[in-house]
């Protein structure tokens, strides 16, 4: 098959590759159920081994996430090449409080997650994964840069 004629391809990612990709980013989307709706919040994160660590303030996001099953998604998309990847983590979120072991509190705070948004972000949440899946889209033949096909 001619290289220029190959179709786009969707590839499933293994767990190890998903974690490798997660480690390259700092912002993801936390999905929770709150106020009778599924809600999505952008959050800064870091990894502590295979656990996702987030910082946030008190409010809807924290109340809905603490001790709840949540989803967490990170993606990178290149619109020019129509390529990219997405990783979805499903698991249990738990706020880390003074009631936890000192070693866990220290590890959580040492994860390196730094909020970008201004404001108070003094609450720490760990997401313990139950399932990690991912996909990568490999581009096929791209439309010409100029002409009607480039705008569709």
TrEMBL record:
Keywords of this entry: DNA-binding
Organism expressing this protein natively: Pseudonocardia asaccharolytica DSM 44247 = NBRC 16224
InterPro entries noted in UniProt: Pyridox_Oxase-rel, Split_barrel_FMN-bd
Keyword DNA-binding applies: yes
Example GO molecular function: DNA binding
Protein name in the entry: DNA-binding protein
Keyword DNA-binding: yes
A Pfam family assignment: Pyridox_ox_2
């Amino acid at each position: 098959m001619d290289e220029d004629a190959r179709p786009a391809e969707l590839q499933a990612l293994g767990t190890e590759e998903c974690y490798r990709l997660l480690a390259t980013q700092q912002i993801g989307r936390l999905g929770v159920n709150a106020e009778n709706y599924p809600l999505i919040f952008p959050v800064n994160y870091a990894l502590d081994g295979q656990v996702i660590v987030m910082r946030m303030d008190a409010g809807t996001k924290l109340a809905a996430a603490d001790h709840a099953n949540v989803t967490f998604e990170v993606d990178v998309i290149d619109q020019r090449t129509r390529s990219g990847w997405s990783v979805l983590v499903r698991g249990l979120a738990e706020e880390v409080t003074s009631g936890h072991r000192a070693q866990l509190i220290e590890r959580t705070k040492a994860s390196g997650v730094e909020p970008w948004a201004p404001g108070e972000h003094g609450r720490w949440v760990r997401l313990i994964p139950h399932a990690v899946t991912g996909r990568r889209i490999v581009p096929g033949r791209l439309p010409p840069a100029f002409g009607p096909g480039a705008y569709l």
